[in-house]
């Protein structure tokens, strides 16, 4: 470039003048900007709060006072009328008033904002803050209340009619869209914020239930289904099939299951040839003698795979099923009963009873009825209380005379000691092992002396053990003024018994009884001691001789009341 010696060119002068003018204007613009620092344009409002013309600090103070509480108030979100409350602080939502104010009161060269200072401000939105993690958690918590789970459909039988409950889809909060909605509206909700939702589909659609009715339910109960096995058959009614049916709706489909065990049990209840339960052999008393009621095998349809076969057959024209059957043996067979050896009368024992006491006789008859037909298995211990108890009115017993603590009184089951005496004697005379018995404190002459037994529930039992390899059956009755007990079985022991004379005789005395239930007695019978001896011999052994010794108290004279004083003698 060349320059004239006479001075600058015209172009250069133009640039210098223009640049100088620009510098002057820029300086004025910047000066204006600096002049407006710390002042908010007049007529400016933030969320309805007038802050125009205020300084930065004044505006911040005013906004904090008026908008701060609003930012702390919980707001409601809703879906289809169901609402939940969200606390802004817990949800990570807030307002940044310092940033809001500084954007309009701080230094700026933005011509728009400078122009607002000149002509006046406008409505300004506050700067909002959000903690995305907290807000997402708050929305998930709200969804627990707002989400409506789908209602799955059901299919069942009402009688023999298929009944469908239609499935209903659910509705759940669309979390991503709801996030944006809340961020946009939470600080100024004119009303409850309605959240966007998505459909929560059902697992099994309605058309699948229609298919199940047409292809499963209706064919099942259209008619009977025949089950065949081992040359026998039985028809299953629609009512039975419907009652055994269960429909399961899951994984997109409806399936039918039949309770095969219930169907098999129904065959037995309906006396079908395919539902015969095994019958145990029994030994009963018939016409006064033991009789074996033979056992019987059972026939039971196997439930394995039966339900599936019936469901498949219901969709065929034949509607017939070939099933497997199980022949079941009874646990106790005719052969087992025969091995018990209840073939002959072993012995009969009887004692007289007082005919004048009709209540006592009722107790004897009640007890004998319970004993009649009882079987004591080989090696088993017989317990009389185990058969007769409980000794209660509800069990058929009445109050009658007993001996308690040496005095006559009354109690439930009075007279049952005679049955105890009967059972002790048949056990003793048949050669069974004496396990437990206790004679009375004083002797009743209707019983063998020293060979009798009392009974008191909870205190005194009468027990003997069947020490043979065959069973024994008890026959018991009351008749002809006597109590009878007979044992049936196989005689094993040759038993010889002997009774000593009465010795150690003691004289009766006068006793005084102050009990309310006192019964006066004339007394007079002496007390004594007696021995009973038994020997037992079988085809293979002889057992040691046994001796039972018992001492009876005298029959004292009983006077009801206290003993007399010296002045009364």
TrEMBL record:
Residues 119-184, 217-318 form the YoaR-like putative peptidoglycan binding domain. InterPro entries: Glycopeptide_resist_protein, Vancomycin_resist_VanW, YoaR-like_PG-bd. PANTHER family: EXPORTED PROTEIN, EXPORTED PROTEIN-RELATED. This is Vancomycin resistance protein YoaR. It comes from Zhihengliuella halotolerans.
């Amino acid at each position: 470039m060349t320059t004239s010696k006479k001075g600058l060119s015209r172009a250069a002068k133009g640039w210098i003048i223009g640049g100088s003018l620009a510098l002057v204007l820029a300086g004025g613009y910047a000066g204006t900007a600096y002049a407006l620092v710390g002042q908010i344009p007049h007529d400016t409002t933030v969320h309805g709060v007038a802050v125009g013309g205020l300084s930065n600090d004044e505006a911040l103070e005013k906004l904090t006072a008026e908008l701060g509480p609003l930012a702390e108030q919980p707001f409601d979100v809703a879906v289809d009328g169901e609402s939940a409350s969200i606390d802004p602080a817990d949800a990570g939502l807030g307002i940044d008033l310092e940033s809001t104010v500084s954007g309009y009161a701080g230094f700026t060269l933005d011509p728009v904002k400078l122009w607002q200072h000149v002509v006046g401000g406008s409505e300004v939105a506050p700067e909002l803050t959000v903690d995305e993690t907290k807000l997402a958690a708050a929305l998930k918590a709200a969804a627990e209340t707002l989400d409506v789970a789908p209602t799955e459909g059901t299919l069942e039988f009402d009688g023999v009619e298929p009944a469908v409950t239609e499935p209903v889809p659910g509705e759940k909060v669309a979390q991503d869209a709801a996030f944006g909605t809340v961020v946009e509206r939470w600080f100024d909700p004119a009303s409850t914020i309605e959240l966007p939702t998505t459909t929560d589909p059902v697992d099994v659609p309605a058309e699948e239930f229609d298919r199940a009715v047409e292809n499963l339910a209706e064919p099942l109960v259209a008619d009977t289904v025949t089950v065949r096995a081992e040359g026998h058959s039985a028809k299953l009614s629609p009512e039975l099939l419907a009652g055994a049916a269960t429909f399961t709706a899951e994984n997109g489909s409806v399936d039918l299951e039949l309770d095969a065990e219930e169907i098999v049990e129904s065959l037995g209840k309906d006396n079908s040839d395919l539902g015969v339960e095994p019958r145990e052999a029994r030994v009963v008393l018939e016409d006064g003698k033991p009789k074996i009621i033979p056992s019987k095998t059972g026939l039971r349809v196997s439930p394995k795979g039966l339900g599936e076969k019936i469901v498949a057959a219901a969709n065929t024209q034949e509607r017939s099923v070939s099933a497997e059957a199980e022949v079941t043996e009874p646990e106790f067979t005719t052969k087992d009963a025969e091995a018990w050896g209840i073939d002959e009368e072993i012995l009969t024992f009887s004692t007289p009873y007082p005919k004048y006491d009709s209540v006592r006789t009722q107790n004897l008859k009640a007890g004998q009825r319970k004993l009649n037909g009882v079987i004591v298995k080989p090696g088993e211990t017989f317990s009389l209380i185990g058969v007769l108890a409980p000794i209660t009115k509800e069990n058929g017993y009445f109050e009658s005379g007993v001996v308690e603590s040496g005095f006559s009184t009354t109690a439930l089951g009075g007279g049952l000691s005679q049955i105890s005496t009967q059972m002790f004697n048949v056990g003793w005379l048949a050669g069974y092992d004496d396990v437990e018995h206790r004679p009375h404190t004083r002797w009743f002459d209707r019983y063998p002396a020293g060979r009798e037994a009392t009974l008191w529930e909870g205190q005194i039992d009468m027990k003997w053990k069947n020490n043979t390899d065959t069973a024994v059956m008890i026959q018991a009755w009351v008749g002809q003024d006597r109590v009878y007990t007979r044992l049936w079985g196989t005689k094993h022991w040759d038993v010889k018994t002997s009774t000593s004379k009465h010795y150690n005789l003691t004289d009766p005395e006068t006793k005084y009884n102050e009990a309310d239930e006192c019964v006066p007695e004339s007394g007079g019978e002496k007390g004594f001691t007696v021995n009973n001896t038994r020997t037992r011999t079988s085809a293979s052994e002889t057992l040691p001789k046994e001796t039972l010794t018992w001492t009876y108290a005298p029959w004292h004279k009983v006077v009801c009341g206290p003993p007399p004083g010296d002045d009364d003698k």
